[in-house]
Write a structure and sequence with these properties.
The chain has 288 residues and is mainly α. It folds into 2 domains: 96 residues, no CATH class; 125 residues, no CATH class. It is 68% helix and 1% strand. The chain contains 12 helices and 2 strands; from the N terminus they run ααααβααβαααααα. Helix 4 packs parallel to helix 6, helix 5 crosses helix 6 and helix 6 crosses helix 12. The radius of gyration is 22 Å and the shape is globular.
Length: 288
């Protein structure tokens, strides 16, 4: 038996707070903070038990499917975020809806794939599927933070730090700026007060949406300009859906725009891959 002796590193260990911010556990901690602040302030959850059921179902499904299809045990952080998102965003008196929504969300990562990548943000797919297929049994969360601006500031500061460190802040900023600008336009069209049009972005649903769903690295296009264009497109589609009184407009907008953008990007990549070899080879010399 051979042993390898590794010399101790001469580099100082990074500060604990930097290691925590860089770890994959920081987003789960942040989303848990959203849950606790929202529930303690406004009671946004149906129950902690139903949220726990969604989390357990999500993590269990991730581990089983990851082991079957990827031949490895996946890190549970992503599944935890999916499960807790289902627990926050779904409203239903029945326990089975939370388990089913979490199972659909995780299964979509492995069943709905194209060119070895999943197309939909898992929790967005699961919640939209439940709203489509079981509208008599479920509803989505629709509540604002009210006048509790302290909670809102804490969430936005921490969320901005996390997406900035993940190099995704431009996505959140583009969507928020587009939403606010279009809110004034919507208020002018409908005659409603502009405050009521902007108010939804202060709600827990939007905190999850802007910090976790539209910034999901696995389901966003590759380029920075493309990511900003998709965020703006989501806001535009949501704008028209809200004019039609769609309560869950942001979720539906992401459901349609996100995958469409990915398919367009993959189509352009395939065209580019076919064009470049032809251009490099150039015209073949004529034989005498």
């Amino acid at each position: 038996m051979n042993w390898t002796i590794v010399a101790p590193s001469t580099q100082p260990n990074p500060a604990l707070w930097k290691r925590l911010l860089d770890s994959r556990f920081m987003p789960p901690v942040f989303i848990t903070l959203i849950l606790l602040l929202g529930n303690l302030s406004f009671g946004i959850l149906e129950s902690y038990q139903k949220t726990l059921l969604a989390i357990v179902t999500s993590i269990t499904g991730e581990l089983i499917l990851g082991r079957i299809f990827l031949k490895k045990w996946p890190h549970p952080a992503s599944a935890y975020i999916t499960g807790i998102s289902v627990g926050i965003l779904l409203r239903s008196p029945a326990y089975w809806t939370y388990a089913l929504c979490a199972a659909l969300s995780i299964t979509s990562k492995y069943a709905l794939r194209f060119r070895n990548r999943h197309i939909w943000n898992p929790s967005n797919f699961g919640i939209c599927a439940m709203l489509f297929l079981a509208s008599d049994s479920v509803a989505g969360l629709s509540i604002q933070w009210g006048n509790n601006f302290a909670s809102l500031i804490v969430i936005w500061v921490l969320g901005s730090i996390i997406v900035w460190r993940a190099h995704r802040f431009h996505i959140t900023a583009t969507y928020v700026a587009s939403f606010i600008a279009l809110s004034f336009l919507r208020a002018w069209i409908t005659g409603d007060p502009w405050q009521s049009e902007i108010a939804p972005i202060t709600g827990p649903m939007y905190q999850l949406f802007i910090f976790f769903m539209i910034t999901d690295p696995k389901t966003t296009v590759r380029t920075r300009a493309g990511q900003c264009a998709v965020a703006f497109s989501i806001a535009v589609v949501e704008f028209f859906m809200r004019l039609g009184s769609s309560v869950y407009a942001p979720l539906y907008a992401l459901f349609w725009v996100g995958p469409t953008a990915l398919f367009i990007e993959m189509w352009l990549d395939s065209r580019r891959a076919r064009t470049i070899p032809a251009a490099v080879s150039g015209p073949q010399p004529a034989h005498p």
